[in-house]
Fold this protein.
Amino acid sequence: MKRGFLTVLLSVLAGGLTAYGVVKVNGSQYSAPAVRSEGGSVEYRTVNLAESDYPDFTYAAESAVEAVVYVEVTVKQRQQYQSIDPFFRFFFGDEYNQPQSREQKGSGSGVILRPDGYIVTNNHVVENATKISVTLNNNEQYEATVVGTDPATDVAIIKVDATGLPTIPMGDSDQLRLGEWVLAIGSPLSYNLRSTITAGIVSAKGRSMPNTTGEFKIESFIQTDAAVNPGNSGGALVNKKGELVGINTAIISQTGSYSGYSFAVPVNIVKKVVADLMDYGAVKRALLGITMQPVDKKIAEDLKLSSLNGVYIYEVLKGSAADEAGLRKGDVITAIDGQKITDGASVQAKVNNYHPGDKAVVTYIRDGKEKTVDVTFHAAAMQTGEVDIDGSVAFYGARIKAADAEILQALGLRSGVQIVSVGQGKMAQAGATSGSIILYVNDEPVSKPEDVIAKAKKAQRGIYIEGVDENGKSFYFGFGK
């Protein structure tokens, strides 16, 4: 098609009863129905139809498809027979009721990140896999091992023993615009269609989906209408330049097949997760320490806000990064390091880019005035025994430290271990409260976090904790290891 402009002349008769358009392309005129109008004016509309406005995906498709692989996994599932006919038990004994293992095959896709065989895919693709096989676009096959997984973002890294593999350069998912064209590349093996490429546009950014498992998730998906089906999980979402902008991970469908909505983990989240998994084997995730909710009309009216953007702080966890920075309930966060905050998903996406110990400038509104504060992030979801940047120690989801002398004196105690924050683990579930002092673990006195950890490790079954709360009132609770 030649370069040119489409000029549309809308000639409207008085009263708006009839309207016709004259469409002029490169000197040719075509009559076409036009919109109705109540006035008698003539409207002109010019639409640029230059060839450059039509997306050309050939370079992006041909360069990126070589770095997208087919991932086949083997998972062993154990089956328990719930009841045994007495006849069979008489002849075969109780061994007949032992759990039986059977192998099940699954498949997905992956994206080669480095020429030496590091591949990113979805956690749900390789979860519980006993064997992983990777097939390249040129049909070469390799056995793969898991380097690390992150269920919170559904990202995993696997490795094959190979060199000189093709890769996809990483783009910047923050620069994606609504309506921008993207390609989804993967292997929907349900249809026996390896290395399939589909095109669509960015339908939305910062999407989250209902989480019915109760597990902690970081969701700030790129939504597209590029066709994605089972088997595409872990495949590439690329822009017109052939840059990786996301990892395809989910669809919303009533049938299990594509129905117009597909979702990808933004590559800016993937970059950080991949780096941590390769460097540490686990993600070093930062925590702001707030519970939040969207700014609705009532909140905006009560706080006299000019817009519904931002997130309302419903609670600040005691001892958290937000608490130490001076943020409090009722504040509205509008930006982090200058990046606009529109909802909870954008907060999660932004905070996930930081490591524990990193600092950020949080912009918030309090009493109708915009303020800023420096926040130093703490670590989230640490393993029991890990030390946070402030010296506190992780203990079954909570953070503990040796109680300050002033607090001990006020409560009339000689020693004890303070619960800095409760978190979301077994301590919280058992009824622990922030600020309380642990005095005994399994009937043995404790004076520092190391004592608490040591006594808990010695426990054969459960962990029993005694102490006093901030007001000096005794408490006790227990939970299983």
